[in-house]
Amino acid sequence: MNTSPISRRKHQNQQIAKPVRNTHGKSVAESFESLLGSQSPSVVEDYDELGRRSLSAQSRITEEPEQAEKRLEKMRGAVRTLIECVGDDPDREGLLATPSRYAKALLFLTEGYHLNLDDIVNNALFHERHDEMVIVKDIDIYSLCEHHLVPFIGKVCLPGIELPSIFTANCHLKMQIGYMPSDVVIGLSKLPRIAEMFSRRLQIQERLTKEVAQAIAKAIKPQGVIVTVESSHLCMVMRGVQKTSATSITSCALGCFETEAELRAQFLELLGVNKTRL
Length: 278
Hints:
Layout: H1 5-10, H2 28-35, H3 55-62, H4 65-85, H5 98-109, H6 117-121, E1 125-127, E2 134-141, E3 143-145, E4 151-155, E5 173-180, E6 184-186, H7 190-199, E7 202-203, H8 205-220, E8 224-233, H9 234-237, E9 248-255, H10 256-259, H11 261-270
């Protein structure tokens, strides 16, 4: 008996593809075409909704005001030590408040450790007879590379999307997410909130891509989800190899997006992507 593509998708095992880093030199369109090519479904990993929750992160969530102040004071002392070690005077006027500023800024940039998926979704799940693609794009997020504690910048985007000429001056990521519902849709604002929860942690691009896709899959159990990221890493631009034009591409495809090339093509079409542009 013949079944429709939608029915087949609803009865497929929705598994997760591992994110892949692009090699530099291909056009964006070519890179993503290769990146999102047909793959064998991989095993779904057990997903911890807080992810990598260390004992320190748990204590930060539950600490009392007095404990929070002790944590902040410890961080101030560490920053002051760093200033001394690089050869400057932490007591000079311009640096007097720097330890406090930096400590508070770092806590803000890593506030994703405070959050969990259930609180973010907050029951904003709705049973709708909608089985066509849903896309939220151009989600501004910021993240810190866990290896050097400097930003990685760029955009989480779809295959073939052209980077603006001012891209390298913007210290942010722009995320674009697509999913294929399976009887349940999520409040649209929840997708950027999920992305922000994972970006506001010490991260690597590969893990960030995968965690966002897995979290959406866990929250709404869709037929499929796709998240792709293109970014420039300041740890490669400001230091190390100092390659200002190098970019990295990662992708995570779940369920029907992993197994059906036609859906990936539709995904591009809905965004008006011209794959010959680059």
